[in-house]
Fold these 4 entries.
Entry 1:
Amino acid sequence: MGMTSYLELRTRLQTWPKYDGCKTVTRAPLLTAAFPGAFNMSSTEHHWLGEYGGFLDWEHDYVFSTVQSCVRADDVERLRLGGRWHLGVFEMADLNGEIAFARRPDYHRLQSWQLEELVRFLATAGIPADRVHASYCAGGPVAELTRGAYDVPVVIPPDTLSHDALCGAGVPEENLIPDRTRDTLLSLHVHRPTPWGYRNEIFVNIGTRRDPDLVDVATSEYLTWRPVFEGSQVRREDIVDLAELDAGALGVGVGVERLCAVVNGLDRVHDVDYLRPFYIALRNALPDTTPAEIHVAGESVRALHRIYTDLHFHPDALFRSGAHGERRLSPKRRKRSARLKRNVPRTLDSATLAQILHQHAGTQPWHEHLADAIPATVQAIADYHASKHSPT
């Protein structure tokens, strides 16, 4: 089998059969009200906020599909420790659509269906079911599963539905991983009341059966509970119980870059075809920099490029207006972006950085305006370094 290009894999995910009534939507901006003070980190929140005004009390069904951009700045720091699979900005694609129902659905049928679809998709990409591993919630008290993040007197039952569905889809039972953490109990309060549910992490073994090396490439989720709050407050610390969710939602999210790396047998995610030219140019510009620091700098630059592109060109981006009407990041987002800017070496001059960003823009035709945002990105990094410069 020949190499699968990133664009080919991305297109196959976009065109995989979707749930009835699915609408293709424009991805959320990285600057969205769904994640105030941060950058977009997931696939559903922005669209649910726009469609329903929140994450609960859905009055109608809503099914959509997109390839969502996510920035998780904490992942950049993992590269300092030699991580191979983390990116500063990455894409998450649904498989069958992000599905929300006004009434509770038949999860036994739908969760079984979406896990079977995922295993089938992986097989078409050259990953047989015996290389697929998956975690599932083994159940337990909420306080134990969340490591004390939520002190709710509820015992979560084991997720036997996902366990049985994965076996039914052909994944060997010995490849299933019982888990008692928040990796498999979706327990969130994303700045407003948020449904809880079960989650599966889907891994591919890139090692051997005797010496496995598991890479996380996808997640499957289905939501079953709503938080109950004490009094009129709706803060996370005021959650005192869980009630059955009378609506429902489910979906599969695929990390497109990671899956592309695994499908092609690459040593690290940064070797995916659209990223390689960027990293070749960056290494040439910083020849005395360690591999770990190259990837920290590279992922910081890439994330900043995408953030400033959305700031200036995404029609739905949230921004502050400056004194002259220019678009600016909010104070909290400026602080978060500073964590990325400090990872860009001063030795990378503005002219060279602009050339590298042109390389970055040229390999991603699916993202408009990357070339247009190069001046703003370069200037933002230069301004940060100038503000930190201390005269001697």
Entry 2:
Amino acid sequence: MARATSLSFLGLFAEPDDAAAAMDALRSSGFEETDLEVLTNCPFPEGAFGEPPPKHHFYVFPLVGGACGLLVGMLLVIGTQLYYPLVTGGKPILSIPPILNILFEGVMLGCIVVSFFGFLFEARLTGVGRIPWDKRISDGYIGVAVLNSQGREAAARRSLLDAGAIDVIGGQGNVVEA
């Protein structure tokens, strides 16, 4: 059981239509989209439960990483060639073709590293502990989690039960109503 607050609830549903009805009922009860989460054991299409499409800014991370990689690559190549000037056969110290190879590698390395950390940031892996969990979700049930029901616990439980929840589980893992 994941760590969840005592103000969170999880409704278990056997059918996707019941879970979608619960999401509509919770929204009409005044809960925000950020307070609701749908948990399934298999992927469903975006918006299958009436949730808005997720907003992400993942495209920014490769751009920032590429710019940082280009800057670091330029400093490394130009700084090394100016700090250790090795003139070979009268050729220029700062030659463009070899610099382009190293700059390309710097840009790619910057994109990969920053994109990896950007993915971890966008995945919101730190939010896992605040969502209640039940083993039956792995068996095919659909969970609708109400994450912040402060002052509206009765409305959250009633909305979940009216939509056809099999069980309503509290944040500490106890079955509140069945």
Entry 3:
Amino acid sequence: MKLKTLIYTVILSAIYIPWHAAFAQSADAAPQQQTNPVQSAPAKPKRTVNPESIKRAKLTRLKHDVSLTDEQTEKAKPLIDTYVNAVQAVKADATLDLRTKRQKFSEARQRYDSDLNGVLSPDQQQKLASLKEERRTRLRKARAGKSESADEPTASGESQTAVQ
């Protein structure tokens, strides 16, 4: 009888001890798994775009928007190359603060726009200006729509800005 009890005890111990150890480890690991994503959520990696694809896209959009001739296309390519390279250089310069970067972006954009206007005919300049204004308007409306959606009432009937 004692031999049977001993065998049962050994078998139950062999089952219980590893199960208990595994359960204890998973119980200890569970809080870490829950807190780690909150504490060190991996940042969404920024999308890296090849400057050459940016140049192609700008040229394609310009061709489509204002119907560039072949001669104008050849004149616009170096302007686009210079502009995209300048923007990439500003983005890559880690020594600049945000205000300086914005100022350099603006300067590069103004230089690009004035050089491009030298290539385009007056009709094309007017068409490009109206398209830019339409895009700005759409962007402003989209931004305004986002801020208005933040002010809309929640399920409880209170606006999110009023609850502080």
Entry 4:
Amino acid sequence: MALETGTYINSLNASNPAATDGLAQADDHLRFLKSVILLTWPAVSGAVTATHTVMNAKFAEPVSAITSNGNVPALASGITGVEVKALIGAADAAITTDGSTPSLASGITAAEVLALIGAAAAATTATLLNVYPVGSVYTSVVATSPATHFGGTWAAFGTGRVLVGYDNSQTEFDTVEETGGSNTHTLTIAEMPAHTHNISIENTRGEGSDGAENGASSFASTDTSSTGGGTAHPILQPYVVVHMWKRTA
């Protein structure tokens, strides 16, 4: 019978050499046997002392926990996702997505995520300071300075005053942060509406005038006595009081 061929131990044929093979082929069979043993275990350089039981346990092929059809992975029967995540130390995702919109996992807050990635303080503060650059005016019904919320340097602004829009066509409003006005005002004579106070007085010893019944009376004009106290009156518009700050740095 011709000499078998092969590379590894699974190439051996237990039926060879046949009883009819010539003695001259014995050496060929021995050389082939040594070749496949060396090629099968090329790294063995000492005595193998483990028993067949130990070796069988070591060489036994484990059952795959995760398999695949070449496209979609799947868990083996009896294996749960929780067990696999625990084995590899993977936690549940804090942020999930449906492929379009991200969402936080149950029990996870945005503040926790920001704190975890170190973005809470720096990123938020930078964003808020961009919203309120230097020169911005902030109003609130709460007395807390915006520096507490946004950072930056803020100063109380417009105390006891209302704001008015810039208008370069009016001298009162053509300079930013120009102030003016008052809570009350006392009218001057020039500011009073034009009007008259006239009274006629009969002079019974005069030379008479048209319309006199006795023909001997005359009439003259005179001023009335002064009245009014000249007290300043309020000129406040309807208002709502708020806190105001201006960012200075």
